[in-house]
Amino acid sequence: SMDGWWTWSQDEIIYVKAPEDELAQEVGPGSQPDFIGQSLVFLTSDDRILMKMPRDVSAPAIAIYEAQVDERLALTGSPLEDSLAIMVHSDDGIQLYELDPDGQVLTPGVSIPPNGENTFPRISRHPTATRYLVSAMGGPAPGLSTIDAESGATLNLSETPTVDAAFTSPGSDILMLTV
Questions:
Q1: Which class for 68: exposed (0-12), middle (13-18), buried (19 or more C-beta within 10 A)?
Q2: How far is it, in rounded angstroms, from Cα 160 to Cα 135?
Q3: Measuring CA to CA, how many Å separate 162 from each of 12, 75, 78, 94, 148?
Q4: CA triplet 101, 167, 142: central angle to 5 degrees?
Q5: Spatial CB neighbours of 14, under 8 Å, sequence gap ≥ 6
Q6: Neighbouring C-alpha atoms within 13 Å toward the C-beta of 159
Q7: 87-107 pLDDT, tens per residue?
Q8: pTM of the entire predicted model
Q9: Are 86 and 66 in contact (CB under 8 A)?
């Protein structure tokens, strides 16, 4: 987090570590943990429910967004920890939504290409604009693209297979890892 907290998952168990603690605390089962403000957000192990709880684990987790039947979710927090992006994978493809800290949808769903067959691409949010980098190693749009989360406008930046990319802190440059 921006103030020194750490979270990760290992073997489908989520851990959180406060800056003043020597050891991490086990939170429980889940995946893709991240921070939004003073809260920890993560997906259930089946990638169908977005959960939220105080990052100090002082209260139980509550569901703030649920996938429909036959949908899977992927999650990423914003650099300023004030919103998060959720990718919803269904038979119709992958839709990207921006959510507020309580799981309410802020932007209309925009279609993004998969990373290969039925795999989520990597996404990274711009620090101030509702724009995302979409990185893919394969699939219909390999490489690196930007997508506006409100209009759905897409700009292809590179066709080189891209493992991951992120905006720099001011948002003026991009760091990318290619193969």
A1: exposed
A2: 10
A3: 25, 19, 20, 18, 19
A4: 100
A5: 7, 8, 26, 27, 28, 29, 30, 31, 33, 40, 42
A6: 1
A7: 999 888 889 999 999 999 988
A8: 0.87
A9: no
